[in-house]
Amino acid sequence: MNVENFLFGCSLGGMLIGLILYVIFGQLTVRKLRKNSETKKQLGLEFASGWDIYNVAQALSLPKSLTKKLENSPLASMYANSECLRENTTIVDRLLAYLFYWVFTASGLTLIVLAALNGLGVF
Fold first, then answer.
1. The pTM is what?
2. Quick check: is 57 in a domain?
3. Which of 7, 41, 73, 74 has the fewest CB atoms within 10 Å, i.e. the most exposed one?
4. Domain residues for 44?
5. What backbone torsions phi and psi does residue 93 show, to the nearest 5 degrees?
């Protein structure tokens, strides 16, 4: 087994785990936030169905300094309000968001890098 196949397999495995965490996070946390009248409008812009799940995970996973910069930018309506979400979630919700966001993001970036390296003829 060469390095490319190993990295590809790990990326696909991570993506599968990320997708399972996506469903769990959406059902346990975001569903609760959608029902709360205080947080319903704070979930960010939803480009496609389920995009608010990713917005909430991003708001709960990124450092506070970075989320503040995103929320104060001209495109602030696209991002979820991290302060409001932190007040209305538990530590388990935030841990699940952290796991989902970073596993999903790392897997996706690894697949993109592998595709680019393959296109350049490295493998």
1. 0.83
2. yes
3. 74
4. 8-119
5. -60, -45
Identify the CA nearest to 94 among candidates 64, 50, 51, 49: 64
pLDDT tens digits along 16-55: 999 999 999 999 998 998 888 888 888 877 778 788 898 8
Does residue 34 fall inside a structural domain?
yes
Tokens of 15: 């993506």
Q: Please tell me what DSSP assigns to residue 81.
A: -
Contact 40, 18 (CB under 8 A): no
Instruction: Give one DSSP letter per residue of 25-50, joined into a string.
Output: HIIIIIHHHHHSTTTGGGS---SSTT
Contacts of 15 (CB under 8 A, 6+ apart): 104, 107, 108, 111
In contact, 102 and 61? CB cutoff 8 Å = yes
Q: pLDDT tens-digit profile of 78-107?
A: 888 888 888 889 999 999 999 999 999 999
